Amino acid sequence: MAGSSEIIFDKLVYSCAFEKYQGHEEFIPEHFLGFQLSGETHAFHAQGNVVVTENKIVLVRKNQLIRTIKYPSKIGKYQFISITLDKETLQQYAIENKIVVEKRYDGKQKMFFEPNDFLLNYFISLTPYLNKQKEATPRLADLKIREAIELLLQCNPDFKSILFDFSEPYKIDLEEFMNQNYMFNVPVESFAKLTGRSLSGFKRDFTKIFGTTPKHWLREKRLDEAHYRIKHKKQKPADIYLDLGFENLSHFYFSFKQKFGVTTSEIK
């Protein structure tokens, strides 16, 4: 088994793998809190790379594109728990606790942090649900999510401006964003949302900037980058096609030959 994920209760997901497993690109629509039980998660995003090691906690902000590679531990097992901090729950929590965020979070990307004893014990308290020793009722599941919010705020009060910012993504520089994120193989709808645009607005602005459609531009951009890496960095197609947003190697070979008129092995 390469990798599997299991929903323990509505917003708690347990991932397990017994060999190296490269996940697909993911659009993260909601904040989530995760804990690396064993093994490592290598996460790649627009701002760089992060390695989440064993016993580390990660708070991943919503509206991001992330690609992961999962590495089992020395004993041969990868385990990761993630609990979604969804908008509805956070909004209700904010109302009940009279929390108002006046301005957006403007700090640097923070992917993980050292857990305190309370957060460590919180994730330990979830293990009976993973091995099915205990079943979570909807009410108990809601309480566990609220407990996670409380502990996060206790750990770092600055997380308030991340968790309780309910404003819609504002329009950002589309050209800069696409040049940083073209390698993520996600629907155009996700690119539109991440740049603060409707789908029609995204396509309209895209055509004005790049003079072509998103689909055509993405294909050409990925192939140009592939050509550069193969010719100048001597990288192998099998090692880079996934990183550049292609779903399978045969499709990559076909597209490459179609664009450049030669196979990857014929490049000098």
From TrEMBL:
PROSITE patterns: HTH_ARAC_FAMILY_2. SMART domains: HTH_ARAC (SM00342). The keyword Transcription applies. Keywords: DNA-binding, Transcription, Transcription regulation. Residues 172-268 form the HTH araC/xylS-type domain. Coiled coil: none annotated. InterPro entries: AraC_XylS_family_regulators, ExsA-like_N, Homeodomain-like_sf, HTH_AraC. It holds the Pfam family HTH_18. GO terms for molecular function: DNA-binding transcription factor activity; sequence-specific DNA binding. This is AraC-like DNA-binding protein. It comes from Pedobacter cryoconitis.
